[in-house]
Amino acid sequence: MKKLFGVIGDPISHSMSPAMHNELFKIYSIDAHYQPFHVSRGDLNDAIKGFRAIGIAGFNVTVPHKEAIIPLLDELDPLAEAIGAVNTVVNQEGKLIGCNTDGSGFVKGLLNQNQSINDKKVLIVGAGGAARAIYFTIAKEAPELLDICNRTPERAEQILNDCPFEVPSRVLNRQKAEESLETYDLIVQTTSIGMHPDIGQSPLSVHKLKPGAFVSDIIYNPLQTRLLKEAAVKGAGIQNGIDMFVYQGALAFEMWTGIGPDIERMRQKVLNQLGGLLC
Question: Which residues of the chain have pLDDT under 50?
Fold first, then answer.
């Protein structure tokens, strides 16, 4: 019998996950289908009841449900529990188990660019759900310094207070972060600033970026944000959000199937899909 997988969110029509996962099912001859499900906030409880009833094999979770879904699940893995957000659910013999592959996907994408974290000085821009997952996962890798720049310091302070891993950290406003930019080896941009259609915006001036720094922006439309373009002009290494998206998806696929998928085939499928969307 064909297994059903999917992704829930609102909005969801833009998601590239169905194309990516259905391509993998075809490559590995798995009798399964991955379907997007538009689920509004008020319908989340009914959607999960429905998934249980039909025996869905697994699904991804995106905005705005990553936190709200937690009480509707049977278990959380330790990282998802620490982060307080779920982006992947595995059905293990009828039990829905919540996991988080966002942070691990980001770190794997960094390693793919030959960027290590150990003993590095890192600045994370933003304090939303993605920033939280990335902060916790980077903190586990023992950086020398892990700061957060955010408009509202309370949200950033909450991340520092909740993190179970000991790491030197500060909360900075934009001005202080820009003044201190030459401190950092790695800068991770996790906000939506610079995303299509507002491609002229940037969350940070890179005027004081140090030579040899690496700048990663988790946005992938456009493939090069204003921040990345300006960082490249300053001689920095740059990375867009494709790596994180592909690796978090690969980790979810492996949880569901036991197969470590072909990353390059996944990347190519995503880039092909983006070809019709990029502006």
Answer: 278-279
